[in-house]
Design brief:
Helix content is 26%, strand content 30%. By secondary structure, it is α/β, with parallel strands linked by helices. Strands 7-12-10-8-13 form a five-stranded mixed barrel, surrounded by four helices. Strands 5-6 form a two-stranded antiparallel sheet.
Length: 288
């Protein structure tokens, strides 16, 4: 039995941070970072049957063209993903009354819709990137046993080519769900290698008033290549989602609307339009 200190429940029996019960979620789940973006997606639904919010975690479940879908905001960063992925898994794979893992496990389909900055000049603003691989530059996932799910050769190549300072921890590389990749792919989407940073400023090479450990890291990442694969974009969640998804047995895919191109120094003229286009694309594919 899982102790109450390990799996914390609210007085009504819902999981602690998400404030959800098993009947509140669908098998198909869309992640967004910003809680205000949840309704940007559910505005297209035919109906909404459930809504809840606790802290930055806002959830709505409803139907789009007959397909039951949950939309959830995760907040920003790998630490929040640790909370969301573990509590979602508990909802479907742990009996919350007996506090025992279920014998028959459920696999969720989780698709992240986010915004990101491109690292390559040939992936312009307003385009879409599907993360074929997630590169974790944070240390959160290293708290788990991940050696059996990582792409070690790609990690070694990244460490060597960027002269990575191992005091920051060993980067990890994890592939996306092949099932969801095939479900979502089209000629409208670039396939990419997405970096997941543990912060927005220094960890992504931004300098305001503080010097950073490696002021050439962005250019090194731009130049990174492994068997024809180049880094395409940088954000703060994908690697953690892929890692915990693989460990827990869920299908995960990250899609990003590119709203900035750091190689060319440009920003989208209408980032909201780009995000709306990606939302409608994703909903259409899920409903097929």
């Amino acid at each position: 039995m899982i102790q109450s200190s390990e799996l914390i429940l609210n007085p009504d029996g819902s999981v602690y941070h998400l404030n959800l019960k098993p009947e509140n979620i669908a098998r198909d789940i869309i992640f967004v970072g910003d809680q205000n973006r949840v309704e940007k997606i559910t505005q297209f639904f035919d109906s909404i049957e459930f809504s809840a919010q606790k802290r930055e975690f806002k959830t709505q479940t409803g139907y789009f063209k007959g397909k039951k879908i949950t939309v959830m905001s995760t907040g920003i960063g790998p630490d929040n993903i640790d909370i969301v992925m573990n509590e979602l898994d508990a909802l479907v794979n742990i009996d919350l009354e007996t506090r025992k893992p279920k014998t028959n496990l459920t696999s969720l389909n989780i698709i992240r819709i986010g915004t990101s900055g491109s690292l390559q000049a040939d992936i312009p603003c307003d385009s879409f990137v599907m993360s074929k691989f997630g590169l974790g530059l944070d240390n959160m996932l290293r708290s788990y046993l991940i050696d059996n799910i990582t792409e070690k050769n790609m990690e070694d190549a990244f460490i060597k080519q960027t002269d990575w300072d191992m005091r920051k921890g060993r980067p990890y590389v994890i592939g996306c769900s092949i099932t969801l990749e095939k479900r979502m792919e089209s000629n409208e989407i670039h396939k990419g290698f997405t970096g997941t940073a543990g912060g927005f400023y220094g960890p992504q090479g931004r300098v305001l008033r503080l010097d950073i450990q490696d002021n050439k890291l962005n250019s090194k990442m731009d130049a990174f290549e492994f068997e024809g694969i180049k880094m395409t974009n940088l954000e703060m969640e994908t690697g953690a989602i892929y890692g915990l998804g693989k460990l827990l047995g869920h299908e995960c895919l990250s899609l990003n609307a590119i709203i900035a191109n750091r190689a060319t120094g440009t920003f989208s003229d209408d980032p909201y339009k780009a995000v709306d286009a990606l939302i409608q694309y994703t909903l259409g594919k899920l409903a097929e």
